[in-house]
Amino acid sequence: MQFWMKSFPTIFVFAGLLSSCAQPINIHGNRISIKSFDIIEPGKTTEQQVLDQLGKPVITQDYGPRSWIYVESKSQDTVLSGKNFLNRTIVRISFSEKGIATSVDIIPYDKEYNPKIATRKTP
Predict the structure, then answer these.
(1) What distance in Å separates the CA atoms of residue 92 and residue 107, rounded to the nearest whole number?
(2) Phi, psi angles (nearest 5°) of residue 82
(3) Which of 4, 30, 39, 45 could form a disulfide with 101 if both were Cys (CB 3.0 to 4.6 A apart)?
(4) Which residues 6+ apart lie within 8 Å of 40 measured at CB?
(5) pLDDT tens by residue, 50-80
(6) Each residue of 5-42: pLDDT tens digit?
(7) What is the rounded end-to-end Cα distance, in angstroms, of the chain?
(8) What phi-psi label fits residue 79: left (phi over 0), alpha (psi between -120 and 50 degrees) or beta?
């Protein structure tokens, strides 16, 4: 019984130290609110209106169908496992040649998706 009484404060100190190791959540890229993309009406909204409403995109794709890509990534640094990705939101807005939005696509983030990286070399 006395063993538990002596180790009780030690357990509290250890738990306090362990909980103080929690790191803040880091947000990279655009701060995306899905409600802000509801304003974009395919066939009506222009590139300038999208730029005014959402700001500069992370990626602009000029080859093929012109599109802008907005990315928000939330991660947290942890003591034991390094960087831990919590969530990633990717939104692609495609435009016609005249600069009118044609579609808004929300690309879901799959934590278990592991792309195959090519190992071949260019001759």
Answers:
(1) 8
(2) 80, -140
(3) 45
(4) 49, 50, 53, 93, 101, 104
(5) 888 888 888 888 787 789 988 888 777 776 6
(6) 566 666 655 655 555 555 666 666 667 777 777 788 88
(7) 74
(8) alpha
